[in-house]
Amino acid sequence: MFSERIAQYLCTTLDDLILDTFPDGEAWAQAVEDVTNNDVFIVQSMAHKPDVFLMQLLIIVDALRRASARTITAVVPYLGYCRQDRSNRGQEPITARLVASMLEKAGITRMITMDLHTEQVEGFFEVPVENINATATLFDALEISATDDFVIVAADSSAMKRAQHLAEKKGLNIAVVDKRRRNDVEAVAVLGDINGKNVVIIDDICSTATTLTQAADACIAAGAREVYGIVTHGIFAEGAIEKIEKSPMVRLIVSDTIAGVERNSTVIKKVSVAKLFGEVIKKIVTI
């Protein structure tokens, strides 16, 4: 489990917590250890069953608050509902803001997460938020010896800031995959010179893998030599891994923020980011 990897990095152990359900499916939680006046960190990701995991987290936070914990930090490697961060057509929920409000109402005093879908989600919280950037760590896992002929490619416009940050850090050029709909036909093209170059496509989430594989196809069509990918949160909905395996991608690096079934993939390589969370926790504890 991700929580175990964080605890191992910090050379500590996990405290016991009872998490159960009533016969009708309602969740129930109880802290086993005495947390009175202690700083508590709860690790809970929210992929695949976001409704269930969110409700569990809310109940656990409430239980710890009632047990007189001094501070309660929610360590949520993948924070669900962040893609619903605006009302595009009116009469739609801004669910990311709702989730932030619910967690604060339950009693969290800080949030630690990784690569939020958009930076504005951070502003939905009143409590401090540590939004860890994983792209440099994942890029290093590609083990590229020479980067002279590499270009960083944003999978779409929403990945542009993430790609720019990495490109500046590594001293590389940048391009972006542009998708436009004309007469009910979606056109995909690469803006930027990648002809004869190796490319690394950047995105924060891979769910159906459609955006990622379309970007890979567009890069090959634009003359790229080899295509690599970096994704922080690998949701990998049904059929996604098969799409990736059939795509032009040589290698896709994904973090371990979400437990998945990609271990038999010949393309996907999972890299742990537990150390990054451990470092943030150490800084908080020593403040």
Number of strands: 13
At the first level of CATH, the class of the largest domain is Alpha Beta
For the record, give the distance between the C-alpha atoms at the N and C termini, rounded to a whole number.
Answer: 27 Å
> What composes the largest sheet?
7 strands, mixed
How confident overall, as mean pLDDT? 91
Can you write the helix and strand succession as a string?
HEEEHEHEEHEHEEEHEHEEH
| Strand ordering within the main sheet | 9-8-7-10-11-12-13
The CATH topology assignment of the largest domain is Rossmann fold
Please describe the topology of this protein.
Layout: H1 2-9, E1 17-21, E2 27-31, E3 39-43, H2 50-66, E4 71-76, H3 95-106, E5 110-114, E6 129-132, H4 135-140, E7 150-154, H5 160-170, E8 173-182, E9 185-191, E10 198-206, H6 210-221, E11 227-234, H7 240-246, E12 249-255, E13 268-271, H8 274-285
Parallel strand pairs: 3-4, 4-5, 5-6, 7-8, 7-10, 10-11, 11-12, 12-13
Antiparallel strand pairs: 1-2, 8-9
Helix pairs in contact: 1-8, 2-3
Brief overview, please?
By secondary structure, the protein is an alpha/beta fold. Helices cover 30% and strands 28% of the residues. Helix 1 (2-9) crosses helix 8 and helix 2 (50-66) packs parallel to helix 3 (95-106).
If you had to describe this structure to a student in words, what would you say it looks like?
There is one protein chain. This protein is of the alpha/beta class and 287 residues long. It has 2 domains: 2-132, Rossmann fold (3-Layer(aba) Sandwich); 135-271, Rossmann fold, CATH 3.40.50. It has helices spanning 2-9, 50-66, 95-106, 135-140, 160-170, 210-221, 240-246, 274-285, and strands at 17-21, 27-31, 39-43, 71-76, 110-114, 129-132, 150-154, 173-182, 185-191, 198-206, 227-234, 249-255, 268-271. It has a 7-stranded mixed beta sheet. Helix 3 (95-106) links the parallel strand 4 (71-76) and strand 5 (110-114). The longest helix has 17 residues, at 50-66. The radius of gyration is 20 Å and the shape is globular. The two termini are 27 Å apart. The mean pLDDT is 91.
